[in-house]
Specification:
With 439 residues, this protein is α/β, with parallel strands linked by helices. The protein folds into two domains: 29-89 and 398-435, Urease, subunit C, domain 1, CATH 2.30.40.10; 90-388, Metal-dependent hydrolases (TIM Barrel, Alpha-Beta Barrel), CATH 3.20.20.140. Helices cover 38% and strands 24% of the residues. The strands form five sheets. It has a seven-stranded mixed β-sheet with strand order 3-2-1-4-17-18-19, covered by helices on one side. A hairpin with a 2-residue loop joins β2 and β3 (58-64). α7 (243-255) packs across α8 and α8 (267-276) packs parallel to α9.
């Protein structure tokens, strides 16, 4: 009887040890990607027949395929992309996941007046999934447009594996001054929702920045200007804040370890934002050579959001705002100048101002048409974007130690940039979300 009990005990112990070993093995997931072509964004070249060894959610090694194959274990799962072009996951540095199209003022008002924040957050879960399937493994959201801190909730849901989506860097509510941002034009007897957090005065601004950081903002974003108009061939604007107020945004955010983005379209708005020391200029249609030179000296990034300007221009012109057609055309001319002078251009589309059913990768073709090489356009959405987001240790290139955020297309995007509108393989953190390419 004692021998039988001892045998049962030993069998149970062995089964328990085996189960623990299986669980530990499951935690260590090893993948080898065979890359026929690999875009080396740091060197600006395309390498042939490369191997990428992945362990769990990060890249372990990258190099010639034969060399990497020798370092893989027999249990390593192979993803054969030997007939494809492999590159880092794409990053969109200017989106609004809580918006679903903003071509006219009526589109915007409809969402803030008729859609609850929970409903908008539900729609955002579909938006982030669409973005991920299109190859965007990280995004910076620059304002919830009246949806409070729902971007933090979506970010957390993605990070915890509740829903699929890109890595999110969020700014929550964004800031503007009293009477300077929609909803506007309604009866003074009504208290209307605000598309941003309204704040006036230096001390109120410092407190508001702290509040947004408290609720989960990664970035601080403010609207530097409004009321765009042309005079003597220059795009002018009304500035929303005093210099002291703008500097308060930047100083308080930087003191807390956060960066600052500024919506700035006209010359006055861009000029004021640069004086305040912002980290990125958003849109920047009114840039000229003098402002460009200042951006280069200060190391300020530019998110040009070309595609949204093209997409919304005609709709806004029809409702009586033809200036958007002019701004679209001005950006087409100044973009190449900024590239030649060395402005740090980070890929950003303003997705959400156009519907999420549109593929934000259409921005790439305009960047190339306006003066970038295909490789420069790719770098803007990978290595440059990661620098803007202060995330170079984790993403931006296919290198050892970084997250295994990897996409692939059938052909070579350095020869035809529109290939990036046809991403057919998406891996984020070592997990495959889309695969129409591997053998």
């Amino acid at each position: 009887m004692e021998k039988m009990l001892l045998s049962l005990f030993l069998i149970g112990s062995l089964l328990q040890i085996s189960l623990v070993a299986q669980q530990n093995a499951a935690r260590v997931s090893s993948v080898l990607i065979k890359a026929g072509r690999l875009v080396d964004v740091r060197a600006g070249r395309v390498l042939q027949n490369q191997g990428i060894l992945i362990e769990n959610d990060r890249i372990l090694r990258v190099g010639p395929l034969a060399e990497i194959e020798r370092q893989a274990s027999p249990a390593t799962r192979v993803v054969d992309l030997s007939h494809a072009t492999v590159m880092p996951g794409l990053v969109d540095c200017h989106v609004h996941i809580l918006l679903q199209g903003d071509v006219t003022s009526a589109d915007y008002d409809e969402q803030l007046l008729r859609e609850s924040i929970p409903y908008r957050a539900i729609r955002a879960t579909v938006s982030v999934r669409n973005a991920l399937m299109n190859g965007f493994t990280a995004m910076r959201d620059l304002g919830t447009e009246g949806a409070m801190y729902a971007d933090v909730d979506v970010k957390n849901a993605i990070a915890r594996g509740v829903i699929p989506g890109p890595r999110m860097f969020v700014s929550t509510r964004a800031f503007s001054g009293t009477g300077m941002y929609p909803l506007l034009g309604y009866s003074w007897e009504l208290t209307m929702p605000e598309g941003v957090q309204i704040v006036d005065g230096v001390e109120n601004i410092r407190r508001a920045v702290r509040e947004e950081v408290k609720y989960g903002a990664d970035w601080i974003k403010f609207y530097a200007d409004r009321r765009y108009y042309m005079k003597a061939g220059v795009l002018h604007s009304w500035v929303n804040f005093t210099d002291e107020e703008m500097k308060a945004f930047v100083e308080e955010a930087h003191r807390l370890g956060h960066r600052v983005a500024s919506h700035a379209m006209g010359r006055e708005g861009i000029d004021a934002a640069l004086r305040a020391g912002v980290d990125s200029i958003e849109h920047g249609y009114g840039l000229d050579e003098e402002l460009i030179d200042r951006m280069v000296r200060q190391g300020t990034y530019w998110c040009p959001t070309i595609y949204t300007g093209v997409y919304v221009a005609e709709g806004r012109a029809r409702e009586g705002r033809p200036i958007y057609m002019t701004m679209r055309d001005m950006e087409a001319k100044i973009f190449g100048v900024a590239v030649r002078k060395g402005v740090k251009v980070a890929f950003g589309t303003d997705a959400g101002a156009f519907p999420w059913t549109e593929n934000a990768a259409k921005e790439f073709a305009f960047m190339v048409r306006y003066g970038m090489t295909p490789m420069q356009a790719i770098q803007s959405a990978t290595i440059t974007a990661s620098e803007l987001l202060d995330a170079t240790d984790d993403m931006g290139a296919i290198e050892a130690g970084k997250f295994a955020d990897i996409v692939a297309v059938a052909n070579d995007p350095t020869q035809d940039i529109t290939e990036l509108e046809r991403v057919r393989f998406v891996m984020k953190g070592g997990q495959v979300f889309r695969d129409e390419l591997s053998h």
